[in-house]
Amino acid sequence: MTRALRLTIFAPLAIALASCGTQPISSEIGDGTFGQATMNNAQVQMGAISATQALGQRFAAEVPTTITFPFDSAALTPEAQAVLRRQADWIRQFPEVRFRVYGHTDLVGSDRYNKGLGLRRAKAVVAFLATQGISTSRLEALVSYGETRPVIAVATPEERNRRTVTEVSGFVRNHPLPLNGKYAQVVFREYVEGATRPHPTNREIATQINPGG
């Protein structure tokens, strides 16, 4: 190959590579959320994470998992109820998945009292989710951490410590839609249902044909 020919071929390539160096290629990929579902599916299939972990990560990313309570109370505030309705909407999408509610308190009061209070808070959440159409067979309120896992380690009343946390805990046994450990099946089902449009009624078709009718 002659020197002139080599310059003709490689000069444009060198210019292109040099221009790439002025702006990282990764800057055009996005914020890192693109392809998250596909990556989770691949990790589940390879055994890197379990289906429970994958669904738990998705639940935590898509809805608030925590609500807070008034001091020395298991009463649900209107704000807490609004969050629980969002949780219920998400939970209804996955009838084969189980959830666990953890109750917590702040550091005021005895450990024994606070464990009971934390459990009452968890049971209050389960009872509310049941009013939203979620079967209590899929919900657990058996674990209370009391005051042992504060968000803010202070001895004074702290609202952020008076909370419940809802988490994915596993799968319903003998459910008619078993996952068998395959998170991808859930995602596939959602894609299919999301792509299905309701068939128009005869009235809708007639309106489209004759808008002035």
Explain briefly what this protein structure is.
With 213 residues, this protein is α/β, with parallel strands linked by helices.
What top-tier CATH class of the domain at 70-173 fits best? Alpha Beta
Share of residues in strands: 5-15%
The CATH topology assignment of the domain at 70-173 is 60s Ribosomal Protein L30, Chain: A
Q: What global shape is seen?
A: globular
**Head-to-tail CA distance between termini:** 76 Å
Summed over residues and divided by their number, the pLDDT gives a mean of 75
Tell me the radius of gyration.
Answer: 26 Å
Number of strands: 5
Q: Can you give the helix content as a percent range?
A: 40-55%
Largest sheet: 5 strands, mixed
Q: State the helix count.
A: 7
List the secondary-structure elements in sequence, H or E.
Answer: HHHEHEHEEEHH
Signal peptide: 1-18
GO cellular component, one term: cell outer membrane
Protein name: OmpA family protein
Organism: Cereibacter ovatus
Question: Your description of this structure?
Answer:
The structure is a single chain. This protein is an alpha/beta fold and 213 residues long. It has a domain at 70-173: 60s Ribosomal Protein L30, Chain: A. Helices cover 46% and strands 12% of the residues. It is built from seven helices and five strands, in the order αααβαβαβββαα. Strands 1, 2, 3, 4 and 5 form a five-stranded mixed sheet that branches.
